[in-house]
Design goal:
There is one protein chain. This protein is an alpha/beta fold and about 550 residues long. It folds into two domains: about 280 residues, Zn peptidases (Aminopeptidase, 3-Layer(aba) Sandwich); about 200 residues, Glucose Oxidase, domain 1 (3-Layer(bba) Sandwich). The protein contains 15 helices and 21 strands. The strands form three sheets. The protein has a 17-stranded mixed sheet that branches. A two-stranded antiparallel ribbon has the order 7-8. The protein has a two-stranded antiparallel sheet with strand order 15-16. Strand 9, helix 4 and strand 10 form a beta-alpha-beta unit. It starts with a helix and ends with a helix. The relative contact order is 0.17.
Length: about 550
């Protein structure tokens, strides 16, 4: 009853919906911006490359064309200090001792890199320990490192978290819904806190939610890290991934059964398992370059309460040049991921400027470094250009679907914030519905830029395009998603196609436009729901306003 009353109160507080029957957001603008940004001339839009320079110039020109103002004290840009580290002369990752020697080749068998800003990385004669899921969660009474000293050692880590295979959303780690403990970023962070010299994640396609091709293309080129005064020397010397088959062979040689170890690691009270007598080694040179990448920011100033901000976000970056396809194409164009989301910023800004500014300001933020670990949005969260306790909420756009119109949308993080009421009302006007993410085990909530703002308490919507397609239903939606993940995601074939079906994109843009104007014209301050992990942060920040 309480939730029903809350929903009723929120709905009553919403302003009248913007009229969207005329489809005010230009699909032609979307098409052209997506085509340009994903063209070979932009070389895959990697930070710190000529592709970034072209992207920044294009976005500033387009933001100005559609009627935005520079969003950083007269500048379109916010510097994001980064370090580019490119591994060179990578030796095989070797394991000697019981069952050895095993030598894994860089690329097809393993990938390795470092966060440390140093000219050479060497791990030699390092003891090897299987640490299960590599989680230390005191609030859950769970510590995979308990009783084990891994300082100077190489840890092998399972991907995702212990109850990812659960059929339900109940469990120590949210059942099948991945928590932050399941993300590779966390696993490397925790391994470093424990003093590990090297941290290697065992790749498994199902719990990872992507194949080895994605790992290889993402980790074998230049890597970006945030600049830091300590050069990240508190991090592990080497971080990376290894193929599942290689891990099984290594463990079997050490007298361990992989499936039995996984079963044990999924049980509370698991203790890390040293691979007695096994030593690991790897070495590589690092080509280091410091540079200031940039977020691009434009503003449509509010008419009555310009100090209050509605935020639209999308990442402009992609992987640049990557592992070549069979035909020799080595440009990861990132057409869907995320030229579409970046183009959406331009198209939405154009529509809102034509309609006239809302009472609150609208800020359009194209961030860098998402593919390297949400670096640009994290920097904005730590160094906001507009106070976060005066930021009403926002919408993040990452990889819009060009599979056609859908009867629904998929909400990553459905039920977390009161923004759902705005979404539901706008969907009702379209004759569509919101559904929860059907694959919460993939951890999408922690894999895009809304998470960087949520960590600071700002309510953010992350709405994926629908998977219940008008033509073909759920089966067609699943097939389209699988085709993209298997054949284009983070690969050279994520390219613009003039034959794409843009009708679903038009639906989604109209939806985002409607929600943005509703947020821009209300005096309400939607919050996270009671009990959500970010509610306390928001309450404290608003109280300090």
């Amino acid at each position: 009853m309480r939730s029903l009353l809350l929903a009723a109160c929120l709905t009553a507080a919403l302003p009248a919906l913007a009229q969207t029957t005329a489809a005010p957001v230009s699909v032609e603008t979307m098409k052209e911006a997506t085509r340009v940004l994903s063209s070979d001339a932009f070389e895959g839009r990697a930070p710190g490359t000529p592709g970034e320079d072209k992207t920044l110039a294009y976005l500033a020109q387009q933001f100005a064309r559609v009627g935005l103002k520079p969003g950083n004290k007269g500048s379109w840009f916010q510097d994001v200090p980064l370090v580019e580290i490119t591994s060179r002369n990578v030796t095989p990752l070797t394991f000697t001792g019981a069952g050895g020697p095993i030598a894994l080749k860089y690329g097809p068998d393993m990938v390795v890199a470092t966060y440390q800003v140093t000219p050479k990385s060497v791990v030699a004669n390092s003891d090897v320990v299987f640490v299960g899921y590599g989680i230390n969660a005191p609030e859950k009474g769970w510590n995979d490192y308990a009783g084990t000293d891994v300082r100077g050692k190489t840890v092998l880590i399972l991907v995702n978290d212990p109850d990812y295979a659960s059929p339900s959303l109940t469990g120590t780690f949210g059942g099948k819904a991945m928590t932050y403990y399941g993300r590779w970023t966390y696993k490397f962070e925790e391994a470093a806190r424990q003093g590990a010299a090297a941290a290697i994640i065992i790749h498994d396609t199902v719990p990872a939610a992507y194949g080895w091709n994605v790992v290889q293309s993402s980790w074998t080129g230049a890597q970006q890290v945030a600049d830091a005064a300590n050069n990240h020397m508190d991090q592990s010397k080497a971080i990376g991934w290894m193929q599942l088959a290689a891990a099984k062979k290594l463990l079997a040689g050490a007298g361990k059964d992989y499936d039995q170890l996984v079963g044990a690691a999924q049980t509370k009270g698991f203790r890390a398992v040293p691979l007695t007598g096994v030593k690991a080694g790897v070495a590589f040179d690092n080509q280091v370059r410091r540079h200031a990448s940039k977020n691009v920011v434009g503003i449509l100033p509010g008419t009555k309460r310009p100090g209050e901000v509605v935020l639209f976000t999308g990442h402009w970056d992609h992987l640049g040049r990557c592992e070549a396809a069979a035909d020799g194409d080595d440009i990861c164009n990132g057409a869907v991921d995320n030229a579409t989301g970046t183009a959406a910023l331009i198209a939405l800004a154009e529509a809102n400027a034509k309609a006239g500014a809302t009472e609150r300001s609208q800020v359009y933020l194209a961030v860098t470094g998402e593919e390297s670990g949400l670096l640009g949005s994290a920097y904005y969260g730590d160094h906001p250009l507009y106070p976060l306790n005066r930021t009403v909420g926002g919408i993040n756009m990452d990889a819009l679907s060009v599979a056609g119109p859908a009867r629904n949308v998929v909400v990553v993080g459905k039920g977390k914030s009161e923004l759902d009421a705005y979404l539901d009302r706008a969907l009702t006007a379209q004759g569509r519905v919101a559904e929860a993410d059907p694959s919460p085990q993939n951890g999408y909530y922690y894999r895009s830029d809304h998470f960087s703002l949520a960590k600071h308490g700002v309510p953010m919507l992350y709405v994926d395009s629908g998977d219940d397609l008008v033509q073909g239903g759920k089966a067609a939606g699943a097939a389209a998603a699988k085709d993209y993940t298997d054949n284009r995601y983070h690969g050279p074939k994520d390219e613009y196609d003039p034959n794409w079906n843009w009708a679903g994109v038009a639906q989604d843009l109209s939806l985002f436009y409607t929600i943005g104007r509703a947020l821009g014209n209300t005096t309400a301050w939607p919050n996270w729901v009671a009990g959500d992990e970010f509610r306390g942060i928001r309450d404290r920040s608003r109280a300090a306003k």
